[in-house]
Amino acid sequence: MQVPVELKRKYLDRRIEDLQKLRSTVNEGDYTWAIRLGHQVKGNALTFDFPQMTSLGVAIEAAGKNEDKDSIINLIEEMESAIFTAQQKFIS
Predict the structure, then answer these.
(1) CA nearest 58: which of 38, 33, 74, 73?
(2) Which residues neighbour 80 within 8 Å (Cβ) at sequence distance 6 or greater?
(3) 68-83 pLDDT per residue, tens
(4) CA 20 to 30 Å from 15, out of 48, 54, 66, 73?
(5) Rounded to two decimals, what is the model's pTM?
(6) 36: how many CB neighbours lie within 10 A of its CB?
(7) Residues 16-42: what's their mean pLDDT?
């Protein structure tokens, strides 16, 4: 089944919000959200046809478990870039 474009857009918008929260929580020394978000993205990005984000979710989850702030910050930037690239496909 093909996911409608509008649902894909909403998915990407939610991930942007999630990344803002992730940046904030990691800067506070809380890695719980990193683990949760990474696991969630790992599990659902492919459903929305964003396979590149699946591997980023895996990496964020692992970095959260290792409490690796620097890696998480780098992964946030990578995911933001992936989201931006994906959003460009939807611009008419």
Answers:
(1) 38
(2) 16, 19
(3) 999 999 999 999 999 9
(4) 66
(5) 0.93
(6) 16
(7) 97
Tell me if residue 83 falls in helix, strand or coil.
Answer: helix
Alpha-carbon dihedral 74, 76, 78, 84, rounded to 10 degrees: -150
**Would you state the pLDDT for residue 90?**
79
**Would you say 70 and 85 are in contact if contact means Cβ atoms under 8 Å apart?**
no
Model confidence over 15-24: pLDDT tens digits? 999 999 999 9
Compute the distance between CA of residue 15 and CA of residue 18 in angstroms, rounded to an integer: 5
- 42 and 54 Cβ atoms separated by less than 8 Å: yes
Q: How far apart are CA 41 and CA 36, in angstroms?
A: 9
Query: Which residue type sits at 40?
Result: Q
The type of residue at 53 is: M
The amino acid at residue 21 is K
Tell me the three state secondary structure of residue 92. Answer: coil
The answer to whether residues 26 and 34 touch, using CB atoms and an 8 Å cutoff, is yes
Q: Are 19 and 80 in contact (CB under 8 A)?
A: yes
